[in-house]
Amino acid sequence: MQAPEILERIHRGEDSTTQFKQDVTDSNRLAEELVAFSNAEGGVLLIGVADDGIIVGLDELQIGRINQLVSNTASENVKPPIYPLTNIITLHAQRIIAVSVRKGDSKPYQTSKGFYLTKSGSDKRRMSQDELRRLFAESHRLFADEEALENSDVTDLNTESFYAFLDADNRDVYEELKHGKLALESVLQNLGLLRDKHLTLAGNLIFGKTPHRFSPSFYVDCVHFDGDDVDVDHFIAKSTLKGSLRQQYDGGMQFLQNNLRRIPISEGFNAQTRLEIDERVLGELLVNALVHRDYYIQSSVKVFVFNNRLELISPGKLPNSLTVEKIKSGLSVHRNPILNSICKSVLPYSGYGSGIKRVLRLNPAVTFYNDLDKEEFRCVIPREAIV
């Protein structure tokens, strides 16, 4: 975008495709502007221009901070993420930032606070239920795990792992594939693991050779803190778990087995022990975090061991109208339908919404928090006090 076009926009004033901001500091407010443009016809946000069209400009520190804020907000506070273009433009010896937002291809967009907005003249407004229903019907919105990963293809598939899954899950298809009666690409497409010749997010996370190559934000962060909060000066153990979902699950369970205490359940030379927290509880919660997390949020699952508790944190609040009370009663909504379907065969997971009920039956002290502000779902398990 060139200076003459920007000057013409400033001269015309704010409208449905042009918005002025003297400065931006709040990611939530910025997300609202980006969402409104994306749900309408697109537009340009001019930062460094006052509401009355006066060019106030930005200094070097402001430019660096705003560029980072725009990038982070577009990927973390807009769902699904968008990819605006930013240009630094000099007008009358003052520098401003022009943020160009395209008309969205995956409408409707929402903020991380759950607001669906669109432009209304030079202002913005919340979208009506009728508008939302129409846009959802028109967009045929893909779930996050259905989206194709650019630059990936079938050669990035761990075929040994996939064939082992197919052999156990559908022997007839496995035999037809093995004897050349079916094409590998066709089977993958039918399962939602390949789309437009690219691995989908589900295909990469479950059967990718190197999943982190195409999905670098989706891993498990494990930390054993030497205290009761994350601000302690020392941690006892730390591990970053990458790879397939099965590898992340196995690594997470191994970390917990290594960092939780074992309690004797019998006496003598060959005394048996148990983990201080039932391993069935740990397994259910870790699977839940991997399968049901929000993959539109570029963040890791977190396994935090403190002196007094264990926390498992999943990116994303509960979907749709789910509440903590509803999931405790066994109600579930499948945010990632392909993962939900296939992980029944690759993880210790039933997929019937019974996991949380089972956890509470085994350990009623487990507490669940649906944090709307932090956009995360947190499971907290008390640890037994050291005597």
UniProtKB/TrEMBL annotation:
Query: InterPro entries under this entry?
Result: RecG_C_sf (IPR038475), Schlafen_AlbA_2_dom (IPR007421), Schlafen_AlbA_2_dom_sf (IPR038461)
Q: Which parts form a coiled-coil structure per UniProt?
A: none
- On the tree of life, the source organism's domain of life is Bacteria
In what residue span(s) does the Schlafen AlbA-2 domain sit?
14-128
Q: Which PANTHER family match?
A: GLPR-RELATED TRANSCRIPTIONAL REPRESSOR, SCHLAFEN ALBA-2 DOMAIN-CONTAINING PROTEIN
UniProt protein name: DNA binding domain-containing protein
**What's the source species for this entry?**
Thiothrix subterranea
